[in-house]
Write a structure and sequence with these properties.
Agglutinin, subunit A; Hepatocyte Growth Factor; 20% helix; 5-stranded antiparallel β-sheet; 8 helices; 33% strand; 39 strands; alpha+beta; 8-stranded mixed β-sheet
């Protein structure tokens, strides 16, 4: 009976295992293939794979590109160095459990993933295109990314996508790096590579021919690469360098899912560039955000050893303090490649110390030693004890800073950074430190003298201004006292005329407008505001006011006072409610005036003329 139950249970298990697991449209089983002309789209329609030809080429390649981007942008190519000359290509799972690109009659394997899956039945393998752009080969029953049998993210092309790792795996010795296309029409392996240089203090580098340094980012300082501030974290994406016993890799992630971002290693006939692009929906085009190398100072070792490069100076290369050009003639001819040498050589004697440089890209880290448990002070003490140590710095500047890195070879590829960089302490002979101290003392004296001179000049200027204003105010008081009639201030006049309101305008003549006003005692006044464009000086105006004030008659309007303040010159008259004589003589209805009024006016006019 027990044996029967065992047989039934075993049969049940076999039935479960034999059931087919449903395959989605973004997957490919061992019995399926993708032929030229057909494509496979990721689950969220972010990426698409299939065969394509570059813009000016008839060769066919199997690759992955963005699905929603209107301009076909390829991010990964399988058969980079093995193009297909016709449309007979197909991609499938081969009999050995690899992803292969073959011609349609399976006679030639054009490309293979060379994965290891010998212990898994081929019928249980699937190919899946993820929404990250990663093409994976896995067991249909296992979705754990750590157990992928193969993935395209381990074999970058010229494009670095978010989530893709660049770096080293300790167990396998695998090095993931980018490599440029030969040109925009040829995806075969180009001359430039970008990856992580495996040292005790890792940094990213662009190499030519896989061995010659072309660009160096500077080491990772806990926040960013010391010489690449454009690659620092922001609100849209952030970078990270992971360094542990199992692996060392560089990765970036996009925090805003609406942003489409890619990093591309490009190549022209003369140079290579690492460029970051973002897709702009409004213009349906890629926008270039960053391109490195940025300028001449990003060229590796442009200035040689013991020198610094600063793009805003002329020449761009300068020897460090206490150093001089190895070849003065070459240096003067702008060939700085031989660098500089010490003016006073080190002999590990007492009195040697360090000169601090701030805001620099740290030197090439080849041959450095790192102790992440030391602080900066301990680092300096240990460097000074070791006669071979030529410089030191903090290995991590995040937080309050920690760790120690020491250099034992020539200091190469230092750059002065603008608003970034780190502190570097360079070992100097005792005599150089003394001369540097004297130089700083002289500089301090010069600075103090300049400050004293500036302060003295400001004091003299202030005193002069004070005396001038005092004299001017005194002169104004004396001038006002010369008048024998009241002098009104500007505030009083503005208040009386409602700040020269339009409704108070009585008329305007060649010398300026006349406004009606009312003083605090309800006395009505007429204010003649002389034009500011008048060329009449103060003395002439004063004489005129004095003359008018003395010229009084019963038929003349009375001058009450004046106002002189700043550029304002005003005469204050009594207000004539019945207007002036000319308003009655020269009106159009003069013939209809009453005879008595006419006689009175004429009588007054004759008296005025007599006067």
């Amino acid at each position: 009976m027990g044996r029967l139950y065992f047989v039934m249970f075993y049969a049940y298990i076999l039935t479960l295992l034999s059931q087919e697991i449903p395959i989605a449209a973004y997957m490919l089983t061992s019995s399926q293939s993708i032929i030229d002309g057909k494509t496979l789209v990721s689950k969220g329609a972010s990426f698409e794979l299939g065969f394509f030809s570059p813009p000016s080429s008839k060769h066919r390649y199997f690759g992955i590109w963005y699905k929603p981007v209107s301009v076909q942008t390829v991010v990964w190519v399988a058969n980079r160095d093995s193009p297909i000359t016709d449309t007979s290509g197909a991609l499938k799972i081969g009999s050995t459990g690899n992803i292969v690109v073959v011609n349609q009659n399976d006679s030639v394997v054009i490309w293979s993933s060379k994965s290891t899956s010998s212990n898994i039945a081929v019928e249980n393998l699937i190919i899946e295109l993820l929404d990250s752009g990663n093409l994976v080969l896995r067991d249909v029953r296992i979705e754990d990314p750590e157990k992928y049998l193969w993935q395209s993210f381990d074999y970058p092309g010229d494009t670095l996508l978010p989530g893709m790792k660049l770096g080293w795996k300790s167990k396998t010795g695998m090095n993931n790096y980018m490599q440029s296309w030969r040109n925009s029409d040829d995806p075969s392996l180009g001359d430039y590579t970008f990856g992580i240089e495996l040292t005790e203090y890792p940094e990213s580098v662009i190499l030519t021919n896989k061995s010659i340094k072309y660009y160096r980012s500077g080491p990772w300082n806990g926040l960013q690469f010391s010489g690449a501030p454009d690659m620092s974290r922001n609100r849209v994406f952030h970078y990270e360098l992971v360094h542990n016993p199992d692996e060392v890799y560089y990765i970036y992630k996009v925090t805003d899912p609406s942003v489409t971002l890619r990093v591309v290693l490009t190549q022209t006939s003369t140079e290579g560039h690492l460029q970051r692009f973002t897709w702009v929906n409004q213009t349906q085009s890629w926008l270039l955000l960053v391109s490195i190398p940025r300028d001449r100072c990003d060229d590796y070792a442009l200035c040689g050893a013991y020198s610094t490069c600063e793009v805003m100076t002329e020449p761009v290369c300068q020897c460090l303090k206490g150093f001089k050009p190895k070849s003065p003639q070459d240096w003067n001819e702008t060939d700085w490649s031989q660098g500089c040498k010490r003016e006073t050589f080190l002999n590990c004697s007492q009195g040697e110390g360090f000169l601090k440089y701030t805001g620099v890209k740290l030197p090439d880290t080849t041959g450095t030693r790192v102790n992440r448990s030391m602080d900066l002070e301990e680092c300096g003490v240990n460097c000074l004890k070791n006669c071979s140590c030529v410089a030191y710095s903090s290995s991590d500047i995040s937080g309050s800073g920690s760790g120690c890195v020491m250099w034992f070879t020539d200091l190469i590829d230092i750059r002065q950074m603008d608003g970034a960089g780190e502190d570097l302490y360079i070992r100097m002979a005792a005599s150089e430190l003394v001369s540097e101290s004297k130089s700083k003392g002289k500089e301090l004296v010069v600075i103090i003298v300049i400050i004293i001179a500036i302060v003295a000049a400001m004091v003299v200027l202030a005193l002069g201004s004070w005396f001038f204003l005092k004299k001017r105010r005194a002169k104004g008081v004396h001038e006002k006292e010369d008048f024998e009639l009241p002098v009104f201030d500007l505030v009083t006049i503005k208040s009386a005329t409602s700040n020269f309101a339009e409704e108070n305008l009585l008329g305007e003549g060649g010398f300026g407008p006349v406004y009606k006003g009312k003083l605090e005692g309800d006395q009505e006044i007429a204010v003649k505001r002389l034009s500011k464009s008048s060329i009449q000086g103060f003395s002439e105006f004063k004489n005129e006011v004095i003359l008018i004030s003395k010229l009084q008659h019963k038929n003349l309007v009375k001058l009450i006072g004046c106002c002189i303040q700043g550029e304002e010159k005003m005469l204050v008259y009594e207000y004539m409610p019945n207007k002036s004589l000319d308003a009655f003589i020269f009106v159009s209805n003069f013939l209809f005036m009453q005879m008595k009024q006419t006689a009175d006016c004429l009588t007054g006019k004759s008296d005025l003329t007599l006067f």
